[in-house]
């Protein structure tokens, strides 16, 4: 493993449950032990890294500012959300008009990128794409607006279908997966996932790092999201026990699904990096 860590040229870090824990209102955050020192070490060493959250309660700029306030100097350029991936995918597929089900953290980056954005429950029956993100106020009018656009031929994308994520108070329920399940029941359309563990997410992270997947280490607390994404891409998977899963949970996985490293937290990673350097 030391030799493998020596070959790592770029890092992808999950946020909630890996670098930080927030409260169940998604407002107060605290850095987890070792997170600040680890980020500072990579910064000094000039090793590229990104922080990649499936959350869309905030824009990448606002997430970066939040982390900065608790000592994690990630910076906006290194902060990724599924909306970051959406911008790249929508540009590549030449989508221009987007109906968004979500808060400002979902729609603002799209608008800033020059896309025509309509925010549900406003109607956009001629939208080319419907994007579902963090939308705690979801209601019947949103369902009607999105269904009309999908019946009109729009493609359906979602930031994440994870049922929950880690907080200091336990599990916080995911929303976007439940919404697209309702839309599929009504329209028959399947949603393309943009966040972890999708192929699009790993490809985008690799592009941002400028490092091939085989030379990337992905660190996270979820065996499906971060570990699963890393293993499918041929990257190094590192599971931490500070979020949704403990050591026993990772050990109970089938051998092919286990992370290459299972650590109590990111505080155990820095000594390994220093030993491998």
Descriptive report:
With 277 residues, this protein is α/β, with parallel strands linked by helices. The protein has 2 domains: 160 residues, Rossmann fold; 112 residues, Rossmann fold (3-Layer(aba) Sandwich), CATH 3.40.50.1000. The protein has 11 helices and 15 strands. Strands 5-4-1-13-14-15 form a 6-stranded parallel beta sheet. Strands 7-6-8-9-12 form a 5-stranded parallel beta sheet, sandwiched between helices. The longest helix has 12 residues. The radius of gyration is 18 Å and the shape is globular. 50% of the residues are buried. The model has no long low-confidence stretch (mean pLDDT 94).
Average pLDDT level: 94
**What amount of the residues lies in strands?**
15-25%
Largest sheet: 6 strands, parallel
Instruction: Output the strand order for the largest sheet.
Output: 5-4-1-13-14-15
What's the CATH topology label of the largest domain?
Rossmann fold
């Amino acid at each position: 493993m030391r030799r493998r860590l020596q070959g790592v040229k770029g890092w992808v870090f999950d946020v909630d449950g890996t670098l930080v824990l927030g409260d169940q209102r998604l407002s107060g955050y605290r850095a987890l032990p070792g997170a600040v020192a680890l980020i500072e070490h990579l910064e000094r060493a000039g090793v590229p890294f990104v922080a990649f959250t499936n959350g869309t309660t905030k824009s990448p700029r606002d997430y970066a500012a939040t982390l900065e306030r608790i000592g994690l100097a990630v910076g906006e350029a290194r902060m990724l959300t599924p909306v970051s991936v959406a911008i790249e995918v929508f540009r590549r597929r030449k989508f221009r008009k987007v109906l968004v089900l979500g808060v400002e953290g979902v729609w603002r980056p799209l608008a800033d990128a020059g896309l025509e954005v309509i925010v549900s429950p406003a109607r956009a029956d001629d939208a080319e794409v419907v994007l579902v993100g963090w939308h705690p106020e979801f209601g019947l009018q949103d369902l009607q607006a999105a269904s009309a656009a999908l019946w009109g031929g729009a493609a359906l994308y979602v930031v994440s279908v994870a049922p929950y994520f880690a907080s200091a108070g336990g599990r916080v329920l995911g929303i976007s997966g439940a919404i697209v399940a309702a839309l599929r029941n009504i329209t028959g359309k399947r949603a393309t996932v943009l966040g972890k563990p999708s192929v699009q997410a790993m490809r985008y992270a690799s592009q941002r790092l400028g490092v091939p997947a085989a030379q990337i280490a992905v660190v996270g607390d979820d065996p499906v999201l971060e570990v699963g994404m890393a293993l499918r891409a041929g990257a190094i998977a590192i599971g931490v026990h500070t979020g949704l899963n403990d050591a026993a949970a990772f050990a109970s996985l089938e051998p092919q699904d286990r992370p290459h490293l299972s650590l109590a937290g990111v505080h155990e990673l820095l000594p390994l990096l220093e030993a491998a350097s």
